[in-house]
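INFO  loader      accepted 1 record
INFO  loader      residues=156
INFO  predictor   begin
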Amino acid sequence: MNIRPFRDQDAPALARIFHAAVHDVAARHYRADQIAAWAPQVPDPARFVARGSDGRILLVAVDEDDVPLAYGDCELNGHIDHLFCRPDHAGTGLAAALYAALEAAALGRGIRSLHVEASEPARRFFTKQGFATDARNDFDLGGVAMHNFRMTKTIG
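INFO  predictor   done
INFO  writer      dumping tokens
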């Protein structure tokens, strides 16, 4: 496994990883209507190309053939918006390695505080990475009641 910066050609694979992670891993913790509201279809890869060019840190974990297995991003204000892993690699330590690289890259850019709105399964992951849960967020997504957790961590 290697962790490297995002390349535009990664976009279709990242879109599929996002959709698969929501429909497999997150589906163990959310109702079917919540999953459908969150990720009704594989997103347009152009969304990932835009993420890769807006100044945020966007890292991709790839296998020996340079096939994406996971990805994560950190905006310049310290917000981790996405950290998703292919379901067949969940629980293998891949996401933890990717997170460590993301945190190191954030430190390298002078970011000293990270925050995330973590889903139920991500909350457990981020707790293991040293994040504290600040609050539960209840919100509406396409007419469906959803929730996640605001979590923060000081780094450096």
